[in-house]
Amino acid sequence: MSVKIFVNLPVADLAKSIEFFGTLGFKHNPEFTDENATCIVFGDTVYAMLLTKPYFKTFVTDREIVDSDKAVEAILALGVDSRAEVDEIVDKALAAGARSSKEPQDHGFMYSRGFADLDGHLWELFWMDESAQG
User: Fold this and answer.
1) I want to staple 90 with a disulfide (CB 3.0 to 4.6 A). Which of 69, 101, 113, 120 is the partner?
2) Which of 64, 51, 55, 59 is nearest to 18 (CA)?
3) How far apart, in whole angstroms, are the C-alpha atoms of residue 18 and residue 118?
4) What pLDDT does residue 60 have?
């Protein structure tokens, strides 16, 4: 079975969000982009659909959008190829307006750092030495 994941996230300013993730090195798919949404491509099977808040509301029934300043809905973790890549992406995110969400965690075989993006969504970048997994 082949599985892809498309995480849907509400954003306040679609253009700023596209620019933010582009600064981190991630492309958006213009085929899935209009004034309401874009598709950020993280890899061959991992995507985030960034949706303007009014458009996002059409995807849910009667629930409110989580206020990311007050609550956490999820932490989105992306595995990358090296510790240096973790630092590079998180440093770019912070320089582009993100906020650090936790101190770096170094467990030897695994290293991670996190940030809250422009809309307060929590992201964790991590590297894991898979050879240490016995």
Assistant:
1) 113
2) 51
3) 11
4) 76
CA dihedral (90, 125, 88, 111) positive or negative: positive
Neighbours of 54 (CB within 10 A): 9
Residue with tokens 């969000």: 17
Partners of 37 in the beta sheet?
Answer: 51
Q: Is the pTM of this model over 0.85?
A: yes
Domain ranges of the chain: 5-133
**pLDDT for residue 133:** 65
What pLDDT sits at residue 131? 77
Which CATH number is 5-133 given? 3.10.180.10
Q: Are strands 37-41 and 99-106 parallel, antiparallel or unpaired?
A: unpaired
**Distances, alpha carbon 2 to alpha carbons 5, 8, 64, 97, in Å:** 10, 20, 32, 35
Strand spans (E) along 2-98: 5-11, 27-29, 37-41, 46-52, 75-79
pLDDT averaged per 10 residues, the chain (length 134) = 92 97 96 97 96 91 85 94 97 98 94 97 94 68
Reference 51, options 67, 39, 66, 69; nearest CA is 39
